[in-house]
Design goal:
Layout: E1 5-7, E2 25-38, E3 44-56, E4 62-72, H1 96-104
Parallel strand pairs: 1-4
Antiparallel strand pairs: 2-3, 3-4
Length: 110
């Protein structure tokens, strides 16, 4: 790690405002770590992400920001398909064999 890199280990308390450094240059996503809890029905119950951003502020100091995000999921396994109205649209029918041959060759863009 760069010696100029400044790590702020801030544990905010309820009711206190958190002041983060204003990253202005060389801002990039260094790392994302996802963790999930999966239930007996093989569905994700809870998901957390640890995100690490690195960047330089206006004074040239390099900062590493580590964020933990708690992802709350709802309405799992309840996707409702919608019909697309193709009236008046140009449609090209593709057979299953045409699809297989295109994907076998690396996809539709090749």
């Amino acid at each position: 790690m760069n010696a100029a890199r400044k790590r702020a280990r801030v544990k905010p308390k309820k009711g206190l405002a958190l002041k983060l450094p204003a990253l202005q240059e060389d801002v990039h996503l260094e790392q994302v770590v996802l963790n999930a809890t999966i239930n007996e029905q093989n569905l994700i119950e809870r998901q957390t992400a640890k995100v690490e951003l690195v960047g330089t502020d206006a004074s040239g100091v390099v900062h590493t920001l580590q964020l933990t995000v708690d992802v709350r999921l709802s309405d799992l396994a309840v996707t409702t398909p919608e019909r697309v109205d193709l009236t008046g649209k140009q449609v090209e029918k593709v057979t299953r064999e045409e699809m297989r041959s295109h994907w076998a060759k690396g996809g539709w863009r090749h």
